[in-house]
Amino acid sequence: MPTQILTIGLAGLGTVGGGLVTLLKKNADIIERRTGRRIRLKRVLVHNIRKKRQELPDGAQLTDKLTDLTDDPEIDAVVEVIGGKDTARTLIARALDQGKHVVTANKALLAEEGLPLFEKAKEKKRIFRYEASVAGAIPIVQALKDSLASNHICALTGILNGTSNYILSQMTANSLDFATALAEATEKGYAEADPSLDIDGFDTAHKLILLLRLSFGLHYDFAKLPIQGIRDIAAFDIRLAQQLGYHIKLIGQARDTTRTDAHGTPLVEAAVFPALVSHSFLLARVEGSFNAVHIKADAAGSLFFHGRGAGDLPTASAVLADLLAVAREEYPNNTGFALDIPKASLVSPEEWTSCYYVRLMVHDSPGVLRDIAGCMANENVSMSKVLQDEGDASGRVPLVLMTHETSQRSMDRAIQAIRDKLNVREIVCFKVLSWPRSACPLFLPVRERAA
Ligand SMILES: NC(=O)c1ccc[n+]([C@@H]2O[C@H](COP(=O)([O-])OP(=O)(O)OC[C@H]3O[C@@H](n4cnc5c(N)ncnc54)[C@H](OP(=O)(O)O)[C@@H]3O)[C@@H](O)[C@H]2O)c1
Question: What is the pTM of this model?
Answer without folding.
Answer: 0.91
